[in-house]
Amino acid sequence: MVHAPVRHGEPAMQHEAGGVLGEQIDGKSALEQIGKHAIDLIVTDINMPELDGLGLLAALKVMGNATPVIVVTAYGSDESAVAALNQGAIDYLVRPLCLDRVESVVRKALARQ
């Protein structure tokens, strides 16, 4: 079963995950839930209120949380991709999402556990 805090529900991610997905409106709320629950996979947007996706990645690193993180954005750039990967994201996806790519990334992320 996959639990993944997500800013906005991603139908492609939900299809591939085949499990229960939690959704949080911002990075701060997501971080609180991550601290309370065993989570197999985190999918986060870069642009979120309170705490953005890069801030969430940094906080997870400080916490020593090794849950795989996939970053999704509609506003992809080389700089944000490099920043996300340097902060520990397993992958970086730009919307619109391709279902085949999502399936591959989710499988890769879950196989690392």
From TrEMBL:
InterPro entries: CheY-like_superfamily, Sig_transdc_resp-reg_receiver, WalR-like. The modification 4-aspartylphosphate is found at residue 45. The keyword Membrane does not apply. Residues 1-110 form the Response regulatory domain. GO terms for biological process: regulation of DNA-templated transcription. Keywords: DNA-binding, Phosphoprotein, Transcription, Transcription regulation, Two-component regulatory system. One of its GO terms (cellular component) is cytosol. GO terms for molecular function: phosphorelay response regulator activity; transcription cis-regulatory region binding. This is Response regulator. The lineage of its organism: Bacteria, Pseudomonadati, Pseudomonadota, Gammaproteobacteria, Methylococcales.
